[in-house]
Amino acid sequence: MDDLVGNAAVDYKGLLAIRSKTGGWLSNAFIVGIEVSERLSTMGIAVNLGTYLIGTMHLPSATSAKIVSDFMGTSFLLCLLGGVIADSFLGRYRTIAIFAIIQTLGTGILAISTKLPQLQPTPCNVHYSIKSTNCEQATTSQMSVLYISLYLMALGTGGLKSSVSGFCTDQFDETDEKEKTQLTLFFNWFFFFITLGTLLAVTVLVFIRDEVCRSWGYGICSFSMLVAILMFLSGTKRYRYKKTMKSPIAQLLQVLIAAIRKRRLQLPKNDCFLYEDNSDSSRISHTDQFRILDKAAIMTKEDYECISSLTHNPWRISSVTKVEEVKMIIRLLPIWTTTILFWTAYAQLVTFSVEQASTMERSIANFRIPAASLTAFFVSAILISLATYDRLIVPFLKKWTTKSGFTSLQKIGIGLFLSSLGMGVASIIEVKRLSIAKANEETSNILPISVFLLIPQFFLVGAGVGFMYTGQLDLFITQSPKGMKTMSTGLFLTTMALGFFFSSLLVSIVKKATTTNINNGWVGESINKGRLDCFYGLLAILIFIDFGFYVLCASCYTSKIIC
Length: 563
What we know:
Helix content: 55-70%
Strand content: under 5%
CATH topology of the largest domain: Growth Hormone, Chain: A
Structural class: mainly alpha
Strand order of the largest sheet: 1-4
CATH architecture of the largest domain: Up-down Bundle
CATH superfamily of the largest domain: MFS general substrate transporter like domains
CATH class of the largest domain: Mainly Alpha
Shape: globular
Number of strands: 4
Number of domains: 2
Order of helices and strands: HHHHHHHHHHHEEEHHEHHH
Largest sheet: 2 strands, parallel
């Protein structure tokens, strides 16, 4: 008789799953295609959406960057909503299926909108890097269709990203040593494959959009997602499913409200007098951090009578385990806060850095590299950093120390430092590019300076992403309660969202603060007439300061003290 899984996972019929017939790497192969296609669509669109907005829709440079940042920010912010929906209502399987269809619809509308002339303003014969007063901007109705397609995609991304990784981990039984080992290898392979999807997006798809037809490129995104959905549905009988639990948001609120109601009560001197209803195997040991929340577990006479009759009110009393689960989430928040600025720097790679590349010499022999394809160096840096860490750093640490690799907190710190360094280098490179632009202001749209000068900034920030993403994903999944893992994945992804939103806000603030009647400002109509070097320098300083705060928060997290 086949062995049954030991983690309470069930098959598609609702029966306890059989190990040999469900789950494992084969099931994940059907699931991961959804995430690869999502990356192919979202990143493929984001990296050269700016050039479309400037060159075809005739929007100013700063406005274009804001639209791209808002689109990416909303995509990641909605991941938190997707996580709550999956954990509390639909389950991960149905959430993935529904939101993948929404993603396909969004890319399909975008493909149509870029094909139909009536959904675009009248063309003008001017290179998109230079603003012309003769170019008509897109009308409100034309922009509305574009916004509908983008935010349908954002909604689809939000539902997918928070659920796919969680559903993949459901395919492994953590109670089995062999499958537990496979699970530890999963996240590296997962991130590796979705990064390959990004690499295809910024090379093959960008080339098709720039050199063949933009609508064809977006149509391929829609078709690839449709194929991925069919593959995903074909694996239905092989998947392992976990039943949805009570809303994690409700649990957070129950503990907070119960603690507020009992805020005037004194905590017992012995913690064993606090209420606990979980078995020994599922209990979480009490900690002294955030003691104010422990008041939610104080048993009053009224609580004792209700518990005795098995009708206790969760809004009046919570178990120690539930209180500790809330503490786990709260402890992550300082780390969460100090990683937002990292993704603000990342946002520049899909906005201003691509626009920089569009003004520079990109020809190799008779082939002209699409500006957005320069982000391939950024993606390559991620892959190289992952491979270097796995094949060189980990073996070195195992040989010369007792460690098997960097901790998740150390990875995040390395990512922040590399990001600060990358933006500093970007500032220096932009000084050189601007000097060439000033000398050739009246002679050429394409500056006589090689686009490969941008490689260091792509590489440093890209390597930072390799450490930051894996560090955050590991921290937020392993250090969160079991019933909140999808929501906590969404919480991690909201740092990307807020990074993009802060990027948009920062661009607006800097533009307003630096623009005068005689000065174009740091970020304005055209980067050749702005001071993008100053903007990059400002980001480098802000991230370095943030890195200092992160080191303090990480020290507090490790020592479990309140800072």
